[in-house]
């Protein structure tokens, strides 16, 4: 067909993560990029055949960022600030998951706001596997938007 342009799906390995004031983190995997709106069911009096489904609150899932071990402690320090904050306000950061094409040009981005690390995890040490060490950082986010 003349004039038809083929659009192949983008490869999932081409992405980057941007977090305010942290420029040294390179992630191998990002999961949890989703939002969900709860359903509030309501049975109206006198109508026994129908249950109304009303819109409830919308929430964003936690983002789970997995990276190869990096010697720069910026992400771990951020987690430590949260863990030791006590009654002090916690430092939240904004960021983006950026989808890239094979030429590493930005295609689209998903922005997250008011994130803070709820979990940091170091992968297990196992000398028999020969695999690279992995760190996991889980971020609680208040909102995810495509932009």
Give me some keywords for this one.
single chain, 147 residues, mainly beta, Pnp Oxidase, Chain A, seven-stranded antiparallel beta sheet, two-stranded antiparallel ribbon, 9 strands, extended
Please give a quick description of this structure.
Helices cover 7% and strands 47% of the residues. It has 147 residues and is mostly beta strands.
Helix content: under 10%
The number of distinct helices, counting runs of at least 4 residues, comes to 1
CATH superfamily: Hcp1-like
**Overall average pLDDT:** 84
Radius of gyration (Å)? 21 Å
| Cα separation of the termini | 33 Å
Tally of extended strands?
A: 9
Give a written overview of the molecule:
By secondary structure, this protein is mostly beta strands. The model has no long low-confidence stretch (mean pLDDT 84). 7% of the residues lie in helices and 47% in strands. Strands 1, 2, 5, 6, 7, 8 and 9 form a seven-stranded antiparallel β-sheet that branches. It has a two-stranded antiparallel sheet with strand order 3-4. The protein has one domain (15-43, 50-146): Hcp1-like (Pnp Oxidase, Chain A).
What layout of secondary structure does this protein have?
Layout: E1 15-19, E2 27-31, E3 35-42, E4 52-60, E5 63-68, H1 74-83, E6 93-100, E7 106-122, E8 134-140, E9 143-146
Antiparallel strand pairs: 1-6, 2-5, 3-4, 5-8, 6-7, 7-8, 7-9
């Amino acid at each position: 067909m003349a004039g038809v342009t083929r659009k192949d799906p983008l490869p999932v390995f081409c992405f980057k993560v941007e977090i305010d004031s942290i420029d040294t983190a390179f992630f191998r995997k990002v999961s949890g990029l989703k939002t969900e709106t709860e359903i509030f069911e309501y049975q109206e009096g006198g109508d026994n055949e129908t249950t109304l489904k009303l819109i409830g609150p919308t929430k964003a899932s936690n983002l789970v960022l997995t990276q190869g071990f990096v010697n720069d402690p910026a992400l771990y320090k951020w987690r430590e600030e949260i863990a030791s904050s006590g009654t002090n306000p916690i430092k939240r950061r904004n960021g983006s998951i950026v989808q890239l094409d094979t030429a590493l040009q930005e295609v689209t981005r998903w922005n997250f706001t008011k994130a803070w690390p709820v979990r940091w995890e170091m992968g297990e040490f196992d000398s028999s596997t020969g695999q690279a060490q992995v760190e996991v950082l889980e971020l609680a986010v208040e909102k995810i938007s495509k932009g």
